[in-house]
What we know:
It is a single chain. The chain is α+β, with helices and mostly antiparallel strands and 217 residues long. It is 44% helix and 21% strand. Strands 4-5-6-7 form a four-stranded antiparallel β-sheet. The longest helix is centred in the N-terminal third of the chain and has 46 residues, at 38-83. The protein is flat and about 80 Å long. The two termini are 16 Å apart.
Amino acid sequence: MEDNAKEQAIGDGIVEVGGRKYMTDPKGALVPLSTIKETDKLIDQTVRKMMGFADALSSEIARFKGHCFDDVGALQALVAEKYGSKVGGAKGNVTLTSFDGCFKVTIQVQDQLTFGPELQAAKCLVDECIEGWSEGARDEIRALVNHAFQVDKEGRINRAALFQLRRVQIEDERWQSAMEAITDSMRVIGSATYMRFHRRDNPQERWAPVTIDMAAA
């Protein structure tokens, strides 16, 4: 793998028909090159140049990701064969640290969750609780509840806030039933594996991340 990603050719977007040069607009129509503004041509050239580097870098990261997982897999197989033991946790989570304690590679397997119809029942029970409590006691909880059940732009529930809500200890039976309904609503539909890198100058310092976004590679 080379040290730097080289630009990949993605073409100049110019097509030749009957000896004349054109560029295709977003509707698929052929626009004579001579009629296109110089500014638009310059923008097109700049975007294509940047995309060439982006495509090359994305491919390089994908290859790097594959090599890393292959290396970890080979290490795990070697250790298992030689010592009869396993490197990593039951779900596939692995943390590897250099001998001097200055470099760390972490592989994390994270469940992908969705929520079933029980979640709506939980929301109704929680609302009943809040309405039945005294005025002063319910404002803070209501804010937490609204945050937890809020849907983001992709239509997904705020998972972190929902888990925080479950940690709130309240003796009301309706509340406890609501928390049980939240638990029952959780469905594991898959998992995603992430690899993260950290480094530090000496073992006494805090870890600093080496930023490589491989989640979508």
